[in-house]
Specification:
The complex is a heterodimer of chains A (226) and B (260). Chain A is mainly α and 226 residues long. Chain A is 75% helix and 0% strand. Chain A contains 8 helices and no strands. The termini of chain A are far apart. Chain B is mostly helical and 260 residues long. Chain B is flat and about 75 Å long. Chain B is built from 11 helices and no strands. The chains are: A mainly alpha (226), B mainly alpha (260). At the A-B interface, helix 2, helix 3, helix 6, helix 7 and helix 8 of A face helix 5, helix 8, helix 9 and helix 10 of B.
């Protein structure tokens, strides 16, 4: 068999390590930026999604369903190739982050909605009895519990956004996938380059998961519940 | 359908032309959709088969096999689909020294990707069934295979169905990635139609919006099917099927990358 004689040469990757490292940084930067933007938006939007205005509820639901059921790649293409035809021109990074944010927000709203339904209605009643306003109830009573319940699912979403950020490389962002492809086409060492990329992704996703769990443990210790 | 396309650039005289141009491409769009559906169907079929096997192995008692299955699931769930597609199209031909056509590379990548997520669901569903079922079956004299075949799997199937449908939706959506290696499916069709007529401003956006809408219609219909089965499962098993997951987090099992 041929693959028995394939000689691995991981040495060719050595001179590319600054590029690979920078690529990992780009991947983290894009996904973390998108996550940081979509987090507050979806926390606000989930109360509109479950609020009392029917029209607003439907609008948010439509947004969520559209962005959950359309491929991220197609959204990236619409933003980057489609919108310039109606004179909306954005750079590659803006498009990539925007596409990830739009999708991530939709997923996060759905996660928060599920968690919101797990909070007993008595929490609202008790807060109302104490004379708290709706806003104050949500901000000080509901959101802390919401964060705690949805914490593992949100962590998964962060990972999903890191993996999703690879799709935005197709519009010319030098993230891990794109750089490993470029290294492969330059040296024709595709196998080694993609293996290095896989290792980088595993390191990044597992580090983020680890940090997420670490922070979660700290938060839980402070709150003393769950 | 044409009505939606004409509203892309309101007040623009070209929009009417654009819509008629897009209408003339309808057979091309439908062909792209059909190619995507076929590709996804084959990938899901292969991926589910592989996923069920890996999932059963992952839940089984043989230790070294279980470790292998864990590594398989962990690996393919921590790397993006695009990298898997690239690996199967650019790297595998070097490894095996033969030319891998785009279709085979695409199916392989999507099937492997799908199987890792399916395996995780199968494992979770098998573990969600109370151990009493297995013990009772063995007391009645069923073999280990018989227990799995007649007692465990039929119940696990009902629990696994709703999340399995979401994996199918995910595979369907991520099949758009294979356009990057040049397989001519729905996304590639949209890009090509955009490039046929780049001077026509509304067509450039319109073609991409049309394929987005096509993906949406299929994925959303599938998600409705998923919701239907989910409510049915919940009615059948009560809500305890859904709480097992959260209990797992509480006893300190790894919440990340394990949860579907």
């Amino acid at each position: 068999l041929y693959f028995a004689v394939y000689q691995f040469h991981f040495g060719v990757l050595i001179k590319f390590w600054p590029e690979l490292l920078r690529a990992a940084g780009t991947t983290v930067l894009i996904s973390v930026t998108a996550f940081a933007i979509s987090m507050p938006i979806s926390l606000g939007a989930v109360f509109l999604r479950c609020g009392k205005h029917r029209l607003v509820r439907i609008l948010v639901a439509v947004y969520v369903e559209i962005f959950r059921n359309t491929p991220l790649l197609v959204i990236v293409y619409v933003l980057y190739f489609g919108l310039p035809s109606i004179n909306v021109v954005m750079g590659a990074y803006t498009c990539g982050i925007l596409a990830l944010t739009l999708c991530g927000t939709a997923y996060l709203i759905e996660i928060f909605r599920g968690s919101l339904s797990a909070i007993p209605i008595g929490q609202y009643h008790a807060a109302a009895t104490l004379g708290m306003t709706r806003f104050r109830t949500n901000a000080t009573i509901i959101i802390p519990q919401l964060m705690r319940i949805s914490y593992p699912a949100v962590g998964n979403q962060v990972n999903g956004m890191i993996l999703g950020s690879s799709l935005v490389s197709v519009i010319g962002i030098n993230d891990i996938t794109q750089v490993s492809y470029l290294i492969g086409s330059e040296t024709f060492r595709y196998i080694e380059a993609f293996m290095a990329a896989a290792v980088l992704y595993i390191v990044v996703t597992h580090t983020v998961s680890y940090l997420w769990r670490l922070v979660g443990r700290r938060l839980r210790r402070g709150m003393g519940v769950l | 359908v044409a009505l939606g396309w004409t509203t892309i650039a309101p007040g623009n005289g070209r929009s009417v032309i654009a819509s008629s141009v897009l209408v003339s491409y309808t057979p091309l769009f439908l062909k792209g959709l059909w190619v995507t559906l076929k590709l996804t169907g084959v990938a899901i079929l292969l991926g589910s088969t592989l996923g069920v096997i890996v999932g059963i192995v992952r839940a089984s008692g043989v230790k070294w096999l279980r470790v292998l299955a864990t590594l398989y699931i962990g690996l393919f769930r921590s790397i993006p689909i695009l990298l898997i597609v690239f690996f199967s199209y650019f790297a595998l031909p070097i490894f095996f020294n033969f030319n891998f056509p785009q279709y085979e590379a695409a199916v392989l990548a999507l099937a492997v990707y799908c199987s890792a997520y399916m395996a995780e669901i199968v494992r979770g569903s098998i573990n969600a069934i109370s151990p009493g079922q297995k013990e009772a079956a063995q007391v009645l004299g069923l073999s280990r295979i018989g227990t799995l075949r007649y007692i465990i799997l039929p119940q696990a199937f009902v629990i696994a169905l709703p999340p399995a449908i979401s994996v199918c939706i995910m595979t369907f959506k991520d099949s758009s990635v294979v356009s990057i290696i040049g397989y001519f499916e729905l996304t590639a069709t949209g890009l090509a139609i955009r490039e046929i007529d780049p001077g026509n401003e509304a067509t450039a956006l319109g073609a991409l919006l049309v394929i987005g809408a096509m993906y949406f219609v299929i994925a959303y219909s599938l998600s409705l099917v998923g919701t239907f089965f989910e409510t049915r499962t919940r009615r059948k098993f009560g809500s305890n099927v859904l709480t097992t997951k959260r209990k797992a987090f509480r006893v300190g099992a790894r919440p990340m990358l394990e949860d579907v």
